[in-house]
Amino acid sequence: MYCGSRTGNNSLFTEAAVQVGHWIGQRGGQLVYGGGKNGLMGTVADATQAAGGRVVGIIPKSLVEKEHANHACDELIVVDTMHERKHLMAERAQAFLALPGGIGTFEELFEVWTWRQLGYHDKPVGLLNVSGYYDGLLGFLQTGVTSGFMSEWQMGLLHISTAHNEVLNALQLHAGH
């Protein structure tokens, strides 16, 4: 799960994080995320646990204080570097989902999407476009396709929806492949 260490200024972002956490927890799933207790990260972790799911947080030492490490995680792994964090998250996850967030969320989404297109993994990648948050980015990505720098098949690797159930069901369906 990739999402903001802030909540943003739209209550629908927080509502979506709660819905996603409940969806994971109600299915006895496991959330693998960045290990913070602030923002949407903390919200989705709390909601997952409240609904009966397991939470694995992975956080670099340098962010333990800054992102307020969530010591309530079922498993909290403190690593030395951001590279270790991202590698371990990718290894432990069965699918990837981005909710609204900032630069870190964007970077992590693009990295696992790139790895997917290059064949470094075959795990599904999703984007939950809450309240039009990613509309501008999706428009830009389509410009990449129409300008010849990307192909439609690359866009097809990204499961995009405005509905949490839809994107989560798609990720679950494709996680078995």
List the SSEs and their pairings.
Elements: H1 11-26, E1 30-33, H2 39-50, E2 54-60, E3 75-79, H3 82-92, E4 96-98, H4 103-118, E5 125-128, H5 135-146, H6 152-156, E6 158-161, H7 164-175
Parallel strand pairs: 1-2, 2-3, 4-5, 5-6
Helix pairs in contact: 1-2
Describe this structure in words.
This protein has 177 residues and is α/β, with parallel strands linked by helices. The chain has a single domain (11-171), classed as Rossmann fold, CATH 3.40.50.450. 47% of the residues lie in helices and 15% in strands. It is built from seven helices and six strands, in the order αβαββαβαβααβα. The protein has helices spanning 11-26, 39-50, 82-92, 103-118, 135-146, 152-156, 164-175, and strands at residues 30-33, 54-60, 75-79, 96-98, 125-128, 158-161. The radius of gyration is 15 Å and the shape is globular. The model has no long low-confidence stretch (mean pLDDT 96).
Distance between the termini: 19 Å
- Write the H/E string, N to C: HEHEEHEHEHHEH
Count of discrete alpha- or pi-helical segments spanning 4 or more residues:
7
Helix content: 40-55%
